[in-house]
Write a structure and sequence with these properties.
Blueprint lengths: L1 E5 L5 H13 L4 E5 L1 H10 L4 H6 L3 E4 L16 E7 L1 H8 L6 H11 L4 E5 L6 H11 L4 E2 L13 H14 L14
Parallel strand pairs: 1-2, 1-4, 2-3, 4-5, 5-6
């Protein structure tokens, strides 16, 4: 079981690509979408919230603090927050678990489970970088969605697939992306 959280930063298509890949591979997922992400979904995609939720095995509201991912006794394998807003990053870095996304991230850290944050902001401020360093020192993987131009992408969809694939690589989930040296 992998927890996927979508926050209100730009880059929603990356989360959709990851959810699609995990569904194709029959890997169970738990999805949490923040309220702000719901707004961004309507701005960035042609999908509606219910379509995205159907890609997951289970989905929870961000204010549903009684949901399974909020507990350390719930055995999820890993958590990916994609895209991860700077607000979410700061909340996690400072232990402010005020919603299901930040509480599940807190659980991942305390239970020593892989936590991947695909942070979305540019440029990073010193505050952003300090928060990332603080979490990286705890073992959190900071994986901004930086494009792999060596694949010579023909369109944004190819970049999205490659970036999502590289994030799944961090969890040793096999996927069909272009690899350096095989292009």
């Amino acid at each position: 079981m992998i927890v996927i959280a979508i926050t209100g930063a730009t880059g929603i298509t990356l989360a959709i690509e990851i959810l699609n890949t995990l569904k194709e591979k029959k890997i169970q997922t738990e999805l949490i979408i923040s309220k702000t992400a719901e707004e961004v979904i309507t701005l960035e995609t042609n999908c509606n919230i219910s379509e995205i939720k159907k890609l997951a095995t289970y989905s929870y509201d961000d204010d549903q603090l009684s949901a399974p991912p909020a507990s350390g006794s719930h055995k999820f394998k890993a958590m990916i927050i994609i895209p991860c807003s700077m607000k979410t990053l700061a909340s996690i870095a400072h232990g402010y678990a005020n919603n299901l996304i930040t509480r599940a991230a807190d659980v991942a850290i305390k239970e020593k489970r892989p936590l991947i944050l695909s942070v979305r902001e540019s440029p990073f401020s010193v505050i952003h970088l300090k928060n990332m360093i603080q979490l990286a020192k705890l073992g959190v993987i900071i994986a901004p969605p930086i494009p792999s131009y060596y694949i010579k992408p023909k369109n944004v969809d190819e970049l999205t697939k490659q970036t999502a694939g590289r994030i799944l690589d961090l969890l040793n989930i096999d996927n069909d992306i272009k690899r350096w040296g095989t292009i």
